[in-house]
Amino acid sequence: MSTPSRTGPPPPGAPETASGPPPLARAGRALLSARMPTVAVAVLLVATVAASAALQPGFFSPYGLSSSFATFLPLATIAAAQTVIVLGGGIDLSIGAIVTLSSAVSVVLMQGDDARLPLALAAGLATGAACGLLNGLVVAGLRLQPIVATFATGSMFGGAALLVLPKPGGTASPILTETYRMVVLAYIPVPAVLLLLLWLAWRVLRRHRFGQYLYAVGGDAGAAYSSAVPVSAVRVLSYTLGGLIAALAGVALLADSGAGDPTLGTELTLGSIAALVIGGTRLRGGSGGVGGAIIGAIVLSLIQGLVFFAGVPTNAREFVYGCVIIAAIALAGLLTARAAQRPAFQGANR
């Protein structure tokens, strides 16, 4: 004789049934575990934007937004270039020198003439791609450590930039600088539109076979090779694409400054690495994305502005800026590590 099943609500104090916690609690738990890198970047972005708006009354004005995004775009673009390389398991310490060399080539050919703009841009982009291709061949072909190889090629590219443009000078095309500072739809700066296009291009690339190969090679090159992924070709192409995107950063710097400088992008290399780390990309490759790197670059640029507008003494600005960057990277790293330690059963339900 079977026992009749018990119906009705469980008595008070009874343990939770197999149905699990309420939906709101499950949603909050998922947000704090699975999406922690995104949450960390969002918190940093909101905090820096709020602080910037508090210290700069005209921050959200058309002129303020135009100036801000004109500053964001070069670092965000070079961070995107570095991210493509890091996702494939590499790193490029020459990327700032590539920016400098490509912009030097462009401004020398441009000579302030709008008619020479297409040729100058094509030459600058080709220079960046050629530098990236050389890096890829050295790293993937000669199997040298990326840090050592790109440190050496960075010296080569920096020296070449000084040969092309020995001292600051040259004039950018007027149409280039004017377009860069334009505002469309009465409020949206052109650099903001370019940032959006950069992210959209990445989304397209991410869904392409090369994007899938890039994550596979960065995650586990041995397993990727066993799955018939052309590991060396993917790495060479990642460095080439990174060099091309870095050349775009050189164009943005040239459009923003209006003149050439043989040391224009040398300080951006470490900034690009810090931006992608803040954005949730792992330096060992295989995880992350350009979207996070772009937001990380914006956060870094805002932090630099905050240090200036907060009235920090000139001789202490670099120290304070470095401390704040360390704190931001540590926060993003800790929260990303927490996301990586989530229980296995949570990942199985996604």
From TrEMBL:
Write out the GO cellular component annotations. plasma membrane
Q: Name one Pfam family in it.
A: BPD_transp_2
Q: Where is this region: Disordered?
A: 1-22
Q: How does it sit in the membrane?
A: Multi-pass membrane protein
Q: Where in the cell is it found?
A: Cell membrane
Primary site of residence: membrane
Compositional bias per record (Pro residues), positions renumbered to this chain: 7-22
GO MF term set: transmembrane transporter activity
This protein's source sits in the domain of life called Bacteria
Entry's transmembrane regions: 39-59, 65-86, 93-111, 117-140, 147-165, 185-205, 236-255, 290-313, 319-340
Sorted alphabetically, which InterPro entries does this protein's record hold?
ABC_transp_permease
Q: Name the keywords, alphabetized.
A: Cell membrane, Membrane, Transmembrane, Transmembrane helix
Q: What is this protein called?
A: Ribose transport system permease protein
Q: Which organism is it from?
A: Nocardiopsis composta
